[in-house]
Each structure stands twice: as structure tokens, then as C-alpha cells.
Amino acid sequence: MSGGVVVLRTDDARIARRAAAAAAAAGLETLIGAAVMLPAPALLAGLVAELELEGALEAIRTARAAAPDCTIVAFLSLPEPELWRQAEAAGADVVTTRGRVDRALADGLADRLSGRRRARRLRLAPLAEFAGRLGHVGRVDQSPVGAIALYHLGGRLHAVSDACPHAGASLCEGDLDGPVITCPRHGSQFQVTDGARLRGPADLDLRVFPVVIEAGVAFVELPA
Ligand code: FES
Question: What DSSP string runs through 57-97?
Fold first, then answer.
């Protein structure tokens, strides 16, 4: 047996063929099928999961629990934000569309082999949903780095921690004046565009996270 197995859980022959080529280029074998079983954890190098197939989320959870370092790429045909988020929460490294599966798998396997860890992405929403709205435009309630507040200013989206670095108050409940947010609890002020602390009692800057736009959809990048 080679250095491991990539499970291609799909009934799309074209995607399976291209993903298998990406796995082979990384020296890995493949198991292909819409309901194929996962191999023993020690052999599991990766999983590609078609989210519209029954049991896809469960397969992602099982793979992530059994082989925490394996590469998991989930994909779907239609932009279904809830399913996208569920796949991220289940443990997928990347959630993408059909056309990008082989590229995402190749990148993920290369990272795995080199030991590099890439920033994780959380899908926010299509950019059009923020158009015409300014200031505080949303909140990600749960993420690996806690709650995230979203601001739309000057034509750009900004993602910052929604926990004040002084004592953890939710900044979403504070007043926003231009790019300056005032903490509702003790009055610390921060610039939401770069996180800079402008006034205490907080003595740290606010954490900021990059926002990237891909195919008209906004994502926030979390530290690896
Ligand atoms: S919790 Fe924000 S200033 Fe104290």
C-alpha cells in the first residue's frame, strides 16, 4: 500500500477522475464511491465529500475524529450557506464548488505532506448581501476564535473579534462612529479597520481577521 488513501465520496465521475489524479500525484491511492467506507484511520490521508449525498456530514465528522490530520475537501453544486457552514463545523478543511475540488485537494495534500498549515476559512455570505448596508453588518456567533463582528466601511468588509480585550464585552453592542467602536462596558475604543486601540482601559489591540472575496462570496480567514 502507498502512503495512504484518499476517499472520494462522490458519484460524479469527472470529479472523481480529477481528484484521483491529484491524489496519485501526491503518491496516494483512492477509494471511490457514493457510499464508500472509510479505511482504517492510519491509512486515511484524505476525504473528498459531495455534500448533496446522504451521510456526507457524518463521513466528514467520522474522518476528522479518526484522522485529525487528514485533508478533507467538501463540495456542493448550489450555494447553500447552511450546508456550507455545517461542513465547516463538521471538520472540512475546505468547502468549495465542483470546479475547484481537484485544486483544493492538491493544495490540501501538499500542505499535509509538508507539515504546513493553511489558514482556515469561514464562509460569510455573498458580497451582494452587504451592498447598501454600512457599519455593523453581522456577527459570526461561533468560530474557533470565538464570536466575530463584521463591519462594512468604505467599500470593504472588516472582521474583528467580538470580545473586547479588556473584559470580553460584545462590541456589537457598542456605538460605532465612523471606523471607531466604543465598548459598551467600560468605554475602550478601537478602530475596526485595523484593530488599533485608541483608548483604554483595554491595553491591547482588537484582533482582526482577513476577509477575502472569492467568486462573489465573502470569507473570513482564521489563523491555522
Ligand atoms: S470590557 Fe470593554 S472596556 Fe472593559
Answer: HHHHHHHHHH-TTSEEEEEESS--HHHHHHHHHHT-SEEEE
Q: Which atom of ligand 1 is nearest to the CA of 187?
A: 3
Taking the centre of ligand 1 as the mean of its atom positions, its distance from the CA of residue 54, in whole angstroms, is 46
Domains present along the chain, CATH in parentheses: 5-118 (3.40.50.2300), 124-222 (2.102.10.10)
Rounded to two decimals, what is the model's pTM?
A: 0.61
Handedness of CA 133, 181, 122, 144 (dihedral sign): negative
Higher-confidence residue of 177 and 146: namely: 177
Q: Quick check: 2 pLDDT over 60?
A: no
Does ligand 1 come within 6 angstroms of the Cβ of 197?
no
Cα(208) to centroid of ligand 1, in Å?
A: 17
Instruction: List, for residues 43-65, the tens digit of each pLDDT value.
Output: 999 999 999 999 999 999 999 88
pLDDT of amino acid 1: 42
Contacts of 140 (CB under 8 A, 6+ apart): 122, 124, 147, 148, 150, 159, 220
